[in-house]
Amino acid sequence: MLIYASRPWHNGHIQPTRRYEKSPFVKTARTAQLPLFYTHGIGSLPRPQVVRDLLARRDELPAERYQRTLDDLVLFAIRLQEQAGLDVVSDGEWRRSQYIREFLQRVGGFERCRKFTHQAEIKLTEVVVRRMSATEPVFARDASFLVQHTDRVTKFALPSPFLIAVRYWHADYSRDAYPTLQHFLDHLAEVLAREACALVECGIDIVQIDDPALTYFCDPRLTSGAEIHDERLRRSWDIDKQFPAALAAINRVAEGLRAEVHLHCCHSVYKRRSDVTGDYKPILPRLADAKVDRVNLEFAYPGTGDVSDLKLLPAHLALGMGVVDVRGVCLQTVESIEALAAAGAAIVGPNRMALNPDCGFAPDAGEPPTIDEAYEKLRRLVVAAENCRRRRLGL
Predict the structure, then answer these.
(1) Which of 81, 94, 131, 345 could form a disulfide with 89 if both were Cys (CB 3.0 to 4.6 A apart)?
(2) Where do the domains of the chain lie?
């Protein structure tokens, strides 16, 4: 379907009228206006040193001053995405020192007391030791700020119930609070469903559920029981038993939302490396029962998705295709990004396509990409998407 549209920029000027073809895989009036090959970030942007310093001083500063300063910095993250030309923007997740940990701290019940090894480093991580105690949504204020400070379509990401459950439930610490991992998973789905509803009430257009844990089933080292670099992942992985429970929890979060819902399945990022490897063939057919609108996958970084995987994408799911590598230092050419997008569109069709980086640029505040690197990669993504769109329309 061809439509003609003008849209206001954030500075009040009008973007020139342009012709584009919209995607039918939409759930809201605002996302219905997004063009084919629309561009969106996965969520996080690298935090400049000033943001990292502020996050580190959270407990030292008066709450009002801390919030006011962070608001100013988040506003810059929003404007950066607008300036790069993204159709959909987030808050850069600059209010979070780490994309899961902020949620854990706000809902309560977690203590940082479990030692584990990860890529030859000994670390200390949280585990659930008490029942989660938050009775009100914890991200509503953050979401409202984003909605109030951009005219672009907005996205807000939540960690999935399964991801949190497999990383932060441990029999030695957690049984008094939650006798089994399934008890914890059920309560997480309830809490996160409440969060997702609150985001939509605040005006968020796209709720993204982040679940890199689903790609654990794609890594033959994990499923075969071989030694793995992350001690937390050394367990029995049985896709037939665990995947249905994981998907049921995701569906519980997505149920009834008056927004577009994305499921993001990445291979995790740590110091420019992936935690797991393997293509998506083991899990894509199992998403046939997923009650989401779009699945965001990785294809730019080696050892992640293979374009041929897309032949297995269930027909009811639209695709967010990762065409920009967030891990490597080198910048891809616009032409190479276009070529990867075209290969995906040849399989699933342009009507089902959006384009994105493989993953968030910095799920943890300490990740090494610079904000300038992220901006340039996003800018090239936007140019590639515009070229794909023009080619589709014969312009």
Answers:
(1) 81
(2) 25-393
Give the C-alpha separation, 285 to 263, whole Å: 15
Residues 6+ apart with CB under 8 A from 196: 158, 207, 209, 253, 254, 257
Q: What is the pLDDT of residues 242-272, one digit of tens each?
A: 999 999 999 999 999 999 999 999 998 888 9
The pLDDT, as a whole number, for residue 385 is 98
Element (H, E) at 357: strand 353-357
For residue 8, is pLDDT > 90? Answer: no
Q: Tokens 């993504």 label which residue?
A: 381
Checking if the pLDDT of 125 tops 50, the result is yes
Closest CA to 323 of 383, 392, 259: 383
Do residues 260 and 203 touch, judged by C-beta distance below 8 A? Answer: no
In this structure, which topology does domain 25-393 adopt according to CATH? TIM Barrel (3.20.20)
From 263, 305, 299, 298, select the one nearest 280 (Cα to Cα).
Answer: 305
The first and second tokens of residue 192, run together, are: 């996160």
Euclidean distance between CA atoms 125 and 112, whole angstroms: 5
Do the strands 2-5 and 18-21 form a parallel or antiparallel pair, or are they unpaired?
Answer: antiparallel
For residue 18, the model assigns a pLDDT of 46
